[in-house]
Amino acid sequence: MAWGPTRGFAGPGSRQQLLSRTFSGLAAGLLLLDPHGRITAANPRAEELLGRRATAMIGADVHELLHRGPDGERIPRSRCVLQAVAEHGRPAWGESDTFLTADGRALPVRWSAAPVVHGDRTVGLAVLFADVAGSSAPVGTEAARVDLLEDLAERLTLVGVITEVLSETLDVEEAVDRLGPLLVPQLSDWVAVDLRTPEGEVRRVAVLGPQGRDSALEAWRGPLPAPMAVSRSALVRVLRGGQPVLLGPREMSEPPDTPLAAVQAGFLRAMGAASAAVVPLTSAREVTGAITAVRTAADRPFTRRELALLADIGHRAGVAIDNARLFGEQRDIATAMQRHLLTELPQSRDLQLAARYRPAPAGSRVGGDWYDAFLLRDGTTALVIGDVIGHDLQAAARMAQLRNILRALAWDRHEGPAAIVARLDDAMAGLTDVPMATMVLAYVVGPAGGPWQLRWTSAGHPPPLLLPAAGSTVHGGARYLEAGQGIVLGAGGGRGRPDGQEDLPAGSTLLLFTDGLVEVPGTDLGAGLESLRRYAAGLTRCPLEQFCDRILRAIPPGGADDTALLAVRVPD
């Protein structure tokens, strides 16, 4: 597509004619770009401002041909905001850049750009610009139209950024913390966020001003009086399902008629409010809270258009908060279910056993990690650590299926770990809906009083860690038992699984664990394994329960997986 020398939109078709009539008379330059930032069209005003024919610009890279810094200098592509719009599909604007004209002048411009989206794909980019230094800047009605378009682009950008930021978290507190700085100072001088709790109470969870969080504002955070059934208060009406409300000096001067209205009136006075807007945090299910935005300048009151923008933001934030709450409810259920499904460890006169399970951090999902330990018919202690693929209630249920089948198979026949896991792999496809899992099955074999030996097989799981007794001079020290490694369950390699075999020295500690213990964001698995080996080797003097607690506390922050571990200590 191109506007040609006829000063219209070249080519037939009603759509092109409509675009031509709409933009040919616009007193601002308009460029259309393809997804790679190449110019595909220019309106007559763009030709005039740049001194370039549309036909000469078509196909050129807008960054290379036109876009320059405030002093006419070239901008590195990596720092070009306009280029980033094309690459990432996010609206943007600039007020201090220049565009290079045909005669080599650096034309000061203000510009705004927005992606053109078809379906879920960015198919192009629209760039609107005007000369802000010379007489060619639009005036009167045309200037108002340009201001309106740029204002709209800026607001769409803000809504887009807020939507993207809120969609990146499934934690209520984090969603609220992210929301405030996006509203201050872009839209307001102060902002308060109130949330309704599942029990029906209301809490003011955030108050932010020009300097962000301030200790002086903490007094306004905390529980609020319950919203009464009837009140003139904008906050009460919004929390009870009312529409967004604009407040000017007259409305804010009305005497409060409920305890919540009195708290809100005091807050507005303390913030020096000259204008305020109260909008609901809404979702498809309910009103989850409210946003109170405050401006202190009497000459800049909130407008109806800004109220609509805040209402849109409130809806998007409400949906994000509701999603986080729904996720939290499911996560709590899954955690409780998973803990209930994890069995108590058997009592043993000879071996000490301890286990821990910790769900993933808030904002992540419960997984299918589990541990198990039980006695076989001949008194052998069976140890299990495993991880079912998935992160939800279904993963926890699948874990229970796999655990129960494994117990039955191990009890039914006197076979080695590799044979049992091979049978489990065969049964998994027909008796469960588990797509894939990793695990270690180990037997502690030996007469009462020892000596003991470990026999195990691994189905794609991290290897067991064997730690010699404290002060031991055993050659090699703490080491991973790499033998017995086989393919993951569900990958079609059930037969021919290997067994590993290792003596368990007196006083030694065996640690079985899931990968949540060693996966560190930004590093490889080997680094995590080495870090665990070194740390655990220094804890062998600790009682076994304390050993497990300290191992869990050492998990680095930032992980997004749940963790299970099972420790066994052989008597001295």
Structure notes:
- Strand 7 (190-196) and strand 8 (202-208) form a beta hairpin.
- It contains 15 helices and 23 strands.
- The strands form four sheets. It has a six-stranded antiparallel sheet with strand order 2-1-6-5-4-3.
- The protein is an alpha+beta fold.
- It is 33% helix and 25% strand.
- The protein has three domains: 14-153, 2-Layer Sandwich (Beta-Lactamase), CATH 3.30.450; 168-327, GAF domain (Beta-Lactamase, 2-Layer Sandwich); 342-569, 4-Layer Sandwich (Phosphatase 2c, domain 1), CATH 3.60.40.
CATH architecture of the largest domain: 4-Layer Sandwich
Q: What is the name of the CATH class of the largest domain?
A: Alpha Beta
Average pLDDT reading: 80
The fraction of residues assigned to DSSP E strands is: 25-35%
User: What is the number of independent domains?
Assistant: 3
Tally of individual helices: 15
C-alpha Rg (nearest Å): 33 Å
